[in-house]
């Protein structure tokens, strides 16, 4: 890690987890490196917006959502019904309405932007009443 001159190694544990080894001869620089690493870990917020509104929020060629993502420094993913079924491990027979279908991610150091982005997405949907679930 350049800022602290610490050594950082990542080792795959399984498809969901990794081992991270951070080392430095200076205790203070090691702590600083760990803090910087933690700031880069992802923060996530998910909520529900009717799928019929996704296209309007995204805009032609993604222009609307790109503008909002750039403003808040976050990444947004809109899930369709089949994505939601796969994410939640549901069979095709189970209803998928009202499950979180919008995922917003950003590094932890920018986590205050998650709620701002959520508000911007909900405003862009022009929906009077939306049921919101936060995981």
From TrEMBL:
Matching InterPro entries: KH_dom, KH_dom_type_1, KH_dom_type_1_sf
Limits of the K Homology domain: 41-126
Protein name in UniProt: K Homology domain-containing protein
Keyword set includes RNA-binding: yes
Keyword Acyltransferase set for record: no
Keywords recorded for this protein, A-Z: RNA-binding
Superkingdom per UniProt: Eukaryota
Molecular functions (GO terms): RNA binding
